[in-house]
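Researcher: Next entry in the queue.
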Amino acid sequence: MNKILGIAGSLRRESFNRAVLNTLAEGREIEIFDISSIPLYNADQDGEHPPDPVRKFKDAIAASAGLLVVSPEYNYGIPGVLKNALDWASRPGYQSVLKGKKVAIITCSMATTGGARAQASIRECFYACLAEVVPYPEVAIPTVHTKVENGRLTDAKSLELAEGLIKTLQ
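Model: Structure for this entry, 170 residues:
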């Protein structure tokens, strides 16, 4: 079970975060899961028979050796679509597919902060789910719009840091 599950925290087709994730997945056992079909969390739909996209998401997490999350920062925090997906995956509480799962987080932003504030809130969310968040290296890619060309991350330093993070999952 060496496969890593990759999740982009942005739904935008031309997302810089998706470009970073796609670049890192090249030549690696990283399966990218599109969270766009996951419905808004509703406890009435939770339980033994969740919506099909939720079941597929949880199954993909369970089958992976770890998660690689690449996310933007929205209003100093975690994007709603990513938080929603994690809310579904976190059930049942303290016994979910996230419990004990290794998680590596990369944030990217057009700002000079690289999404560092989002990284903190994403980490906190995974801690609450009892996941094993990789503490180092912390990878936040600032001014990402200058480091992605033709849908690929091309910045050597960012690639080096991200590749070091991925090694912690293997």
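Model: The domain at 4-167 is CATH 3.40.50.360 (Rossmann fold).
Researcher: Noted, moving on.
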